[in-house]
Specification:
5 helices, globular, alpha+beta, 38% helix, seven-stranded mixed beta sheet, 7 strands
Length: 141
């Protein structure tokens, strides 16, 4: 993995409770990437001052917490992709969505990790799977 040192600084800026949640999302992203044989490298950098994860054949995934919504944090996907609409159709109200750009979590919410890892994997491999029905995800609704 290639990591920009500015990402570590960004994580240090988060309040402690939020930092734990952001580290959890980061861990899920890196675990998802490690489980996909076609991913050989993940770039961790800042885009729009948000920790961002890029792969050669994927769509950028960003994570962040905003002071204006202190009880929430989010994982962002490219809004012009089919990712969020497909997650919504596949997982229904398992997640809370922000339009076609993000899955929102509250600080006290338990993340449905297996399903989120499927979403993350879809983002990290998007350009390989965008032609598949439901992006190859198992539909639960």
């Amino acid at each position: 993995m290639q990591s920009n040192p500015e990402v570590k600084k960004k994580f240090q800026e988060y309040p402690i409770a939020v930092r734990e949640k952001m580290n959890q999302l980061r861990k899920l992203i890196l675990e998802s990437a490690a489980s996909i044989e076609t991913i050989h490298d993940v770039e961790e950098t800042l885009k729009w001052n948000e920790p961002s994860y890029l792969t050669k054949k994927g769509s950028t995934i960003r994570i962040d917490w905003k002071e204006k919504t202190p009880d929430q944090y989010a994982i962002y996907f490219k809004c012009t992709s089919k990712l969020i609409p497909t997650f919504r159709e596949t997982y229904g109200d398992l997640f809370t969505y922000d339009g076609n750009r993000a899955i929102i979590f509250t600080i006290h919410e338990k993340i449905p990790e297996p399903e989120l890892k499927e979403c993350i994997s879809a983002g990290l491999t998007y350009h390989h799977i965008k032609h598949l029905p439901y992006l190859g995800l198992r539909k639960i609704n």
